[in-house]
Amino acid sequence: MRIDLIEFLPLTLQRKEAFTIARGSSKISEVVFLALHSGKRTGHGCAAPTDVTRENVHSVLNTFQTFSRTLPGVEFEKPHQLQERLDKIAQNQPSARAGVEMALFDLAAQAAGLPLYAYLGGRRDRMPTDMTIGIMEARDAVDRARRWVDVGFRALKIKVGRDWKGDAKRVKAIRDAVGPQVELRVDGNQGFSWNDALAFAKHVRGENVTLFEQPVRVDDWEGMRALTEASPIPIMADEMVLTPDDVKKLRWSNAARAVNLKLMKHGGLLKTMEVNTLCESAGYPTMVGCMGEPQLSIAAGLHFALTQKNVRWLDLDSHFKFASDPTSGLRFEQGQLIAPTKPGLGVDVQLPT
Ligand SMILES: [Mg+2]
Q1: Which pLDDT value is given to residue 353?
Q2: Which residue among 91, 156, 212, 315 sits deepest, i.e. has the most Cβ atoms within 10 Å of its Cβ?
Q3: 222 in active site
Q4: Residue 314, SS3 per DSSP
Q5: Residue 27 burial class via C-beta count within 10 angstroms: exposed 0-12, middle 13-18, buried 19 and up
Q6: Does the global pTM surpass 0.90?
Q7: C-alpha angle with apex 82: 76 to 86, nearest 5 degrees?
Q8: Of the listed 101, 167, 196, 213, which one is catalytic?
Q9: Is residue 31 over pLDDT 90?
Q10: How many CA atoms lie within 13 A of 55 on its CB side?
Q11: What is the distance between the alpha carbons of residues 96 and 90, in angstroms, rounded to a whole number?
Q12: What is the whole-number distance in angstroms between the Cα of residue 189 and the centre of ligand 1?
């Protein structure tokens, strides 16, 4: 396969309502779509830069600019062959790297005539995902929780980390409203001191919360270690794990019991596979999560998750919350995301022209 032409387009996706987490609130998500043309085929990708990956739309556009100058004319059969080139150009730009690599995988799986998960050797075609409820009044959170459970979600992730007593009340109110069958997870997004995180975890001990994500700041290794030892809810690392070395450090420090993986954080499918392999050897089950992403890159995350037996949970929900999404084709039934059956990522892309 020869790469003929690369096109890209930054786009602001509007959410139906503001999404609030411990670190801030936002009604939009800024992403950059990318198309790799090869003969009659087009591979699609998307980068969703955030402060977590220390990127922004400008840095992604610069990186894509470099790719559009250097990749045309390059031949490849498997995306593995271009890894070093991607590493060099997208250094410290993991979401930009993920966007390009995703498009390469889309092309390669299309050429093989297989959905991406099957191209990568995966056997299952669907997995349950949770739905995230941002920080809001308990009454409103209960209303959202009921609505999401009504449409089929069997797991909810509740954002916490601003005020532990209010957070605990909200978690209890949601548990009372949805009953014991729905799985509840919480995410502190670095908002707690470790004292407050522990007080919160002990307070909601009876609510059967499965995971407590990134309660304290990414540089607070001692806090993460103390919580991993003392919290009645298992601690999951998210923002503090970007690279394989971060997983090694996590293990040496005993600073978590599980890890949230994101294609945008690690730099695409192959890098995320590396991180997941280290997690597996360290005894950490993983989740595949997302930034504010459209169906296109959510599909890439799903295809990835379907191929990895160490991935136990999915948190691929951002696409449900956009007022409009130029990409479509992912199915959701009975709480599960279902991979498209078409070759490649299998998602339809209709970008504004
Ligand atoms: Mg998180």
Answers
A1: 79
A2: 212
A3: no
A4: strand
A5: middle
A6: yes
A7: 145
A8: 213
A9: yes
A10: 31
A11: 7
A12: 6
